[in-house]
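Worked Example 4.2. Consider the chain below.
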Amino acid sequence: MASVNKIIKSILNVNDVVIDNASLDLNERNEKVLKVHLHPQKKEMARCPICGCKCSIYDRTPKERMWRGLDAGGLIVELYYRVNRVVCPNHNVIVESVPWAFHNSGFTKDFDMVASFIALATNKTMAAKYMRCDWKTILRSLTRTRNYIEPDPKKRLDGLVNIGIDETSYCNGHNYITVVVNHDTNTVVWVGLGHSTETLSEFFELLT
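Applying the procedure from the previous section yields the following C-alpha cells:
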C-alpha cells in the first residue's frame, strides 16, 4: 500500500522532493485548500535556477514561499518551502531553483503547462476561468512554457529551405501580422507585426 507521502508526490507529479507535512484548510473564499510543506532532496538543493550548478548558500528567507499547483479533485493545491538564496559563480546571489517550478514563478510547472495548453486550445479568458486565476497569470504561464520548450526560437531557422509567407488580420481586421512557415516541417518559424516589405525584411535579416 502506498504511503501518504507517495500519494501526495503523485498528485504533485514531482520527484526529488521530501514531503514534510500536509494539511487540508479553508481559504478566505471558503474553498478547500491542500497545503503541502516540502523541500528538495539534498542533491537538488542550492542550485542556480539559470545554469543549474551547485552553489553555496548565501542566506535563507525567513518566511515560507507559496506556489500554486494544479487543482486535485476540486481542491486548490498550494506548496510551501523556505527557499535559500545562493551564490552562483556565474549569476551572483540568486534564489535557488526548486524541482516543482520554473524560475521566478509562483506556480508549479504542471500548472504553467496545463494553463498554456488550455489557452492555446481555447483562449486566455477561458483558460483563466478554468484554472481559477486571472488572464495575466495565463500570459506569464505561456511565456514560461515557451521558454522551457523552446529556449532559442532562432533554431527554427536551422536548415530552412522551403518556406511559405502569408498575412492575416486580428482584432476585428484592423491589425495584420506576417507569418512565415517551414513547408518541410509544416511549422511556423517566424511572425512579425505588420504586412509590409519592411516587416518581411526583419525576417530575412535574421537569416543572415
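The longest strand covers residues 17-26. Residues 1-100 form one domain. Compare this with Example 4.1 before moving on.
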